[in-house]
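Sample entry (208 residues):
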Amino acid sequence: MHSIDRILLENAAWASEHHEADPELFARLSSGQAPRVLWIGCSDSRVPAESICNAGPGDIFVFRNIANLVSDQRDAQAVLDYAVMVLKVEHIIVCGHHSCGGIRTALQPHSSGSDCIDAHLASVKTLVKQHADELATLDEQAQVIRLSELSVQAQIDHLLEHPLVRQAMDQGTLTLHGMMYSLHTGRLRELVRKTSEAVEAVPAASSH
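Predicted structure, serialized as C-alpha cells:
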C-alpha cells in the first residue's frame, strides 16, 4: 500500500479507536488546549514526544527541530512566547537523544553540504571547540552522547535568557528540564532540572 494511503487508513483507525474509548475526546480538544508541558525535541523520526512519554492528544505542546536547539529564530521564539504567555506551561523539557544525526554532523570538521544545516548547527560547533579536550578523550559514539548532553545544557542556559521564561521562573510557575533519550532502551534520563531556587548540574559522560 502507498505510504500516504496507509497514513490515511491508520488515521481513520486511530480516530475510531480514540472515539470509542472516549466519545468526548475530540469535542474537548476542539474547544481548546491546556498542556502543562512544552517539549523541545529533535526532529528525528525515532523520538516522537507523545509516544515516548505515553501522552495523549492535548498533553504536550511540541516544538521539534534538528538537534533540539533553542534558537533565536522567530519560529522558536514564537513557540516560547505562546507556550509561556498564553498556554502558561509549567514545565519546559529540552530533550536530546543518543545517535543524533545533527550532533554527529556538528562533530565533523567539514561542511554538511547545506548552508541551512551548517547555520542551524553553528552553536553546536561552537560547543565542539569549547569542549575539544574532553571530547578528544572519547570514542565516536561517546562523543555524540556527551556533545548531546552539553548541547542540552546549553539550550537550558539559552532558555534562561528569554524574558518571559525568566519571569515565570522567578514567579515559581515554571521549571526547566534537560533530558536525554536512549534509542537503545527507550528510556528518558533527566540531566538537569532548573527552578528559581536550584539547579542540578549535568553529569560527566554517560554510559550507553
